[in-house]
From TrEMBL:
Signal peptide: none annotated. This is Winged helix-turn-helix transcriptional regulator. The keyword Signal does not apply. It comes from Streptomyces massasporeus. Residues 17-116 form the HTH hxlR-type domain. Gene3D superfamilies: Winged helix-like DNA-binding domain superfamily/Winged helix DNA-binding domain.
Length: 126
């Protein structure tokens, strides 16, 4: 008879790293640029946001905006005009991430050169 063993608690991502859920929400490929752009430039229409981010496809931008709205980080406002107008803005919850982004920007400015040097050294050894 085969027995099934439960996974050790340390392998459950939320227990091994209590911020993993936040990292999954906030630091996915396109979420950070969207939130950064909305925080920096304020309320925007879809096309404005798409232009500011640059390399994102409309399909991916739509998916990410829907997810961010679902997560409560972005507010979508529909204006029933002709033609209809939709605007997006960062929510209060999304704005509460500003200190985190500021710390990451500071860390990036202070340490990305070191990361690049480490990569170069590692790649040179291979």
């Amino acid at each position: 008879m085969e027995t099934t063993r439960a996974a050790p608690a340390a392998t459950v991502p939320e227990l091994a790293c209590p911020i993993s859920a936040v990292v999954d929400i906030v630091f996915s490929r396109w979420t950070t640029p969207i939130l950064w752009t909305l925080h920096t430039h304020g309320r925007q229409r879809f096309v404005e946001l798409e232009r500011r981010i640059g390399t994102i496809t409309p399909k991916v931008l739509t998916q990410r905006l829907r997810q961010l709205e679902r997560d409560g980080l972005v507010v979508r406002t529909y204006h029933p005009e002709v033609p209809p107008r939709v605007e997006y803005e960062i929510s209060e919850l999304g704005r509460s991430l500003a200190p985190l982004f500021a710390h990451l920007a500071d860390w990036s400015a202070a340490h990305l050169d070191e990361v690049e040097q480490a990569r170069h050294a590692y790649d040179s050894e291979s």
